[in-house]
Each structure stands twice: as C-alpha cells, then as structure tokens.
Amino acid sequence: xxxxxxxxxxxxxxxxxxxxxxxxxxxxxxxxxxxxxxxxxxxxxxxxxxxxxxxxxxxxxxxxxxxxxxxxxxxxxxxxxxxxxxxxxxxxxxxxxxxxxxxxxxxxxxxxxxxxxxxxxxxxxxxxxxxxxxxxxxxxxxxxxxxxxxxxxxxxxxxxxxxxxxxxxxxxxxxxxxxxxxxxxxxxxxxxxxxxxxxxxxxxxxxxxxxxxxxxxxxxxxxxxxxxxxxxxxxxxxxxxxxxxxxxxxxxxxxxxxxxxxxxxxxxxxxxxxxxxxxxxxxxxxxxxxxxxxxxxxxxxxxxxxxxxxxxxxxxxxxxxxxxxxxxxxxxxxxxxxxxxxxxxxxxxxxxxxxxxxxxxxxxxxxxxxxxxxxxxxxxxxxxxxxxxxxxxxxxxxxxxxxxxxxxxxxxxxxxxxxxxxxxxxxxxxxxxxxxxxxxxxxxxxxxxxxxxxxxxxxxxxxxxxxxxxxxxxx
Length: 475
What we know:
With 475 residues, this protein is of the alpha/beta class. Strands 7-6-12-13-14-11-15 form a seven-stranded mixed β-sheet, with helices on both faces. A five-stranded parallel β-sheet has the order 9-2-1-10-16, with helices on one face. Strands 3-4 form a two-stranded antiparallel ribbon. Helix 1 runs parallel beside helix 17 (460-472), helix 4 (117-129) crosses helix 9 (196-209) and helix 8 (174-184) packs across helix 9. The protein has helices at residues 14-25, 63-66, 106-111, 117-129, 131-138, 149-159, 163-170, 174-184, 196-209, 220-232, 261-268, 274-282, 319-330, 375-385, 401-407, 423-427, 460-472, and strands spanning 5-10, 30-33, 45-46, 55-56, 83-84, 88-93, 99-102, 214-215, 236-238, 252-257, 288-296, 310-315, 340-343, 358-366, 393-399, 444-446.
C-alpha cells in the first residue's frame, strides 16, 4: 500500500494535538484520528446541566498549560485562546471561617500565613524564581542529563519527601499545612508517600510564576486553538474515526498514540513482544475520580470571603483530614469526608452561565473503578464551608468511573492521571528507558499521559514523543 501520510496520530487530546503540531512544523503530512464526535480528550466543554451553562468535561484549571515550554512556542492567542487569571488562584477554607490562599505573589501568600510567613518565603521564593529552569527539567523524562543541576537538586531534595513529613517539619500553623497538603493531594498519592511533596511544589511555584488560569469560553478553547493552528499548518483531523486495531490505520511512516498502555495492548494484539506486553500490563492505575457539575442560581456562599474571589477551592479541612481521606482512597476505601477540588469559573468568565447565574465544577478522589455515587458527600463537604450551597443548585450532572471512561477511553476506571504517579512509575513510565515513548514496533510511539512527564494539559508528552519519532522514523 502507498504511504498516505508521513505520520498518523491517534487521539486528539492535548498530547495528540501537540504531537501533530510538532510533526506539521517539521514539514510532515499528518492525520489525527479521533474516535469521538468532538475533539479534545480531557480538554473539552459542553452544556452538561442546563442550556446556557457551559461546563468543563474534565480539565478546568491550567497552570501547566500556561507554563508549558511547548505551548509557549505556539501562537495560540491568534486562534482565540485567552487566559483569565482569577484574583486569587487558590483558596483553602478552614472550619473557623478563614481561608489560606495561594496568591500570585510569594510575599503576599507568606504574609497571610501568620506564624509561617518566613518558612513559606524561604521555601517558595527561590523555587518560583527558577520556574523556567525547573519547568524544562521536570516536564521531560526523569532519566535525562540535567541542564540546571543545582536548581533541580534543590527542588528534588524537597520534592522527594512525603508531604506530611515536609509540611509538619516546615510549618507550625494549620493554615500553611492545609494549603500545602491540599496542593500535594493533586498527586493522587497518600500524603505519607515519597514524592507527594513534589506535586505541591510544582503546582505551588507554577501558581506564583504563571498563575492557575482558566481559558475564556471553557477548556475546549485550548483544544480549538491547537486544532486550528494544526489545520493552518496543513494537518488534518478526522472525527468519528475509531482505531480498534493498528491494522485499521492509514499507511504512514510513523504512528503516535495518545492512548493508555492498556489500550495499546488491545490495539496491537499479538504484534507486541511478550516481555514488553507484560511490562505494559503491569503498569498500575492511579485512583479514580467522581465528578459533579452544577448549574447555580447564585455564587457559592462561602463563609470565608476570600473563597468568593478564588478560581479554585480545595475543600477538605485540615492536613490530617486530607491525609486520612487520601489514605482511605489508596486502600480502596470510600472516604466519608473526601478531599474535593472545586472550580468556579463563572465568577471570572461571563461566557459560562446566563447573567446572574453560575457554574460549579467539582470532583473527589475515589478508589479505581469505583461506581459509588459521591454526590451527597461532595455536596456535604462544600456545604460545610458554604452553608446554603445546596439551596443554590438548579441542576446537577455527575460522572462516575464508567461515565468518564465512556466519554474518553483514556480515563479507564476514572483514572485521569494515565496511571499511578508514584516514584517508580515516574521513573518507569510506562517502561524504564531514556526514550520511553518508543515501542518495539517500528515507527510506533506512545505519547499519552502514561508517558513522561505524566498528566496535565501541557502537551509535553506529545512533544517529546514526536521529537523521538522525527529522529528515528522520519529522518
């Protein structure tokens, strides 16, 4: 069969589109095959509750997109992408009616952490100052020769610590401990696990360096900007084009797969060598999520005034409460008081809801493939810090593990991380190799969140995988 394209990309999530753009910029002809009717993978938006209420289907707040070394080389603003910076990137309410806040400014953040201002300043100021160096280091495979070894070593010594240990060592007061612990919980790891602190440091310094922004018009606008730039470069996108088997692909010199290792095993069939197949089958899942979206008649009535000015709210109480909830999830138990991540985009983006009304986006962590409805527990946690919240709800939309997987096959069992992000699976993601994107099949590469640097809307998995393909299969 004649070659139809230089490369075919399977999946139109941020990594798939990043791969396709990198190929097109190198002068390659490229086709993106998307199984769904809508492109975007985890970066999509839709009217999930009522007409006129625009909700983000999966990802919502994007510090790593705003700080992505690859995205920052693209003219995405020319294609309509506008970042909105909430007045307060993150607030963490406490039971006494106060909230600990992550501000863009390190000094302002430190000053409101009474008793821990000096410790926070000493921890975060040098790291935030080195964001550009560090972003290039940790947004690539861990097995690499560092270009900024001193900055990376300073980060790594702190980041390898369990979050509970580092937090209680550095901070004396509950506000700072809860703030740091809530950010660390983005890791989906027990907070007693090694490297859980690294997630708090990465997202914390990103908040200071680039903010925790939201895209005007929904996360779909990130996808649309990437897709339109790809089309300008000559790339093609086919929707409703499901690839069940690698034999279904058009003939090409290279294939980039924005799919999970488990999907790849199914697609490749008996083509994979047994040893490599076993490695992929042993790759472990992260816990899942249960997500709800609400149409609201009014803003959430947070008791802490700062929460009414924040884009993201971490709802979970004290560090010990968050740690207990994440420990339960890791052990396969349902937490009675889950840690809940909330975004209230409509406070800052008038396109999300009818005038005077609002949206709420929220999820909590649950054991992998959990089918239990967590709506009541999530709402109870929000009501705890915002009495009267339930009275504002006009309509709800919920998604459990099965619903998430149906909307996006990469989210198997509700796992939005592309596999567990413990130390072993950050080093070996999904296999131990300086070029983990390469597979034993000639010209076939993985480029999903199951490859380095892992989950997040940043496109770096697709970018790095394509760099390998351009060197090896498309020379």
